[in-house]
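Marked as duplicate of an earlier ticket. Keeping the data here for the record.
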Amino acid sequence: MPEYGRYEKLPRPESIDKFIGYLRSNKRIISSVTQEGEQLVNVNRLQKSPILVFMTNIYIVGLADVLEILTQNDNLGTIVTMSEWNGYTSEAKNYCREQRIGLFKFKEFLGAIYFDGDQYLNYISPEEREQKRRLGRRN
């Protein structure tokens, strides 16, 4: 059955289920996860601030996408682009940091949830840290 572009922005149901499942299984940091809407999940963390997460399937989240998402969703703490091959522009990431909003790929978010404040907003995955370390050695 054709999807007619339905999942260009909206995450697939199996992606949402997987995301929520990962969060709920992490008892070390997550106290509860509640789906608030088709693309919104409220994540309550132990000894950390709660996060209202907007899930999207936008291939490359740009600044215009961020602005659209933010105007339609109050009190948003994070935007997560769900598919493995999705990403975001540096302009979108920088704008989100300035607004104190997280912008992450799926796997990045799963690492960032352990932190609050600037450590959360500036989270760098182990893969990225290793890549930066290797590049630093070349210089």
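See parent ticket for discussion. Residues 13-25 form the longest helix (13 residues).
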